[in-house]
Design goal:
This protein is of the alpha/beta class. The chain has two domains: 220 residues, Alpha-Beta Complex (Spore Coat Polysaccharide Biosynthesis Protein SpsA, Chain A); 82 residues, UDP N-Acetylglucosamine Acyltransferase, domain 1. 19% of the residues lie in helices and 30% in strands. The chain is built from six helices and 27 strands. The strands form seven sheets. A seven-stranded mixed sheet has the order 5-4-1-6-11-8-12, with helices on both faces. It has a six-stranded mixed sheet with strand order 14-15-18-21-24-27. It has a four-stranded parallel sheet with strand order 16-19-22-25, with no helix packed on it. The longest helix is centred in the C-terminal third of the chain and has 13 residues. The chain is elongated and about 65 Å long.
């Protein structure tokens, strides 16, 4: 089966971490998130994939390559100018002659994609969205369905208190090729704001399938923290990278050195080749690779990007830090 991973966005909500790093390469549990997405698709038989790239495209293509190490074949759509979620898919319409899957590169999930495909086919749907119930739908699309799963209303990122449903659009889509006829060529076009409302107006078979499986959009700092806590607690199974140590709500990457008197309190993820010096305390934090934590320092509830240095005796509480921003 063919699919597309939408990976061209700037991910400004994760600044400063993504100021010099494309969203597909943001590490989740020690592995770039796009690696988790491709491995997920491979497990469900979606093995011929196109990825759109825009922001630091060479970094993405260098990491992913031809996709073979993830069990898939990957080709790329290079977008000098972003054309929106639907506009990106429209540019490679000739690839999709049969049922296909679209997913965002910020989705970490164990959604049963085969069950969703069965649901889609049984209803003769043109389009199916996988849905998840969430407490706050203001960052997503809120979807209202009838008892058969047919979508009756769609609110794109409704203001808090105006939502008519707590079923969120996960960004995991199943489409028939005829859906592409509704996307104009050469225009900026968005699924949530334009395509889906058009499907409702036209009365085409448009469905939402609710699943009680794990799903997290890691595009905000809060959700980025949550997926790490959930992985360490076993709520989502993510494979640790080679050489990493996983125990007691801690993930410690290969080549990392922890002083005997350093204290680490979970849930905490520490990337590869980090150094934590004597007397340092790290509490519920995420460290990317090559981070140095000075002696006697205290880091709590923070995300430290690659190469960040916390000076001896410093205190860092909360926030996200990158080398390009002032050091804590």
């Amino acid at each position: 089966m063919r699919g597309m991973v939408l990976a061209g966005g700037l991910s400004t909500r994760l600044y400063p971490l993504t100021r010099e790093l494309p969203k597909p390469l943001v590490p989740v549990f020690g592995t770039p998130v796009v690696g988790h997405v491709l491995s997920y698709l491979a497990r469900h038989g979606v093995d011929d994939i196109v990825i759109n790239v825009h922001y630091f495209p060479d970094a993405v293509t260098s990491y992913v390559g031809d996709g073979s190490r993830f069990g898939v074949r990957v080709s790329y759509l290079h977008e000098p100018q972003l054309m929106g979620s639907a506009g990106a898919v429209r540019q490679v319409a000739d690839r999709f002659g049969e049922t296909f899957v679209v997913i965002g590169c910020d989705d970490v999930t164990d959604i049963d994609l085969q069950a969703a495909l069965g649901f889609h086919r049984a209803r003769g749907a043109d389009a199916t969205i996988v849905l998840a119930e969430v407490a706050d739908v203001s960052h997503y699309g809120a979807v209202v369905t009838d008892e058969t799963g047919r979508i009756r209303d769609f609110q794109e990122k409704p203001a808090s208190g105006t939502e008519r449903s707590r079923l969120a659009n996960t960004g995991v889509y199943i489409f028939e090729p005829r859906i592409l006829e509704r996307i104009p060529a050469g225009e900026f076009y968005d699924f949530g704001k334009q395509v889906f409302p058009d499907l409702l107006r036209a009365g085409v078979p448009f469905y939402g399938m609710r699943q009680e499986r794990y799903w997290c959009d890691i595009g905000t700092p809060g959700e980025y923290r949550r997926v790490h806590a959930d992985a360490l607690a076993g709520r989502i199974r993510l494979a640790p990278p080679p050489g990493a140590t996983l125990r007691d709500s801690l993930l410690v990457g290969a080549g990392t050195r922890l002083a005997p008197t350093a204290r680490i309190v979970g849930p905490t993820c520490i990337g590869e080749r980090c150094v934590v010096e004597a007397g340092a305390l790290i509490v519920q934090s995420i460290l990317w690779e090559d981070v140095r934590i000075g002696s006697g320092s205290h880091v709590e509830d923070a995300v430290l990007g690659s190469g960040v240095v916390v000076e001896a005796g410093a205190r860092v509480h909360g926030g996200e830090y990158a080398v390009s921003s002032p050091r804590p």
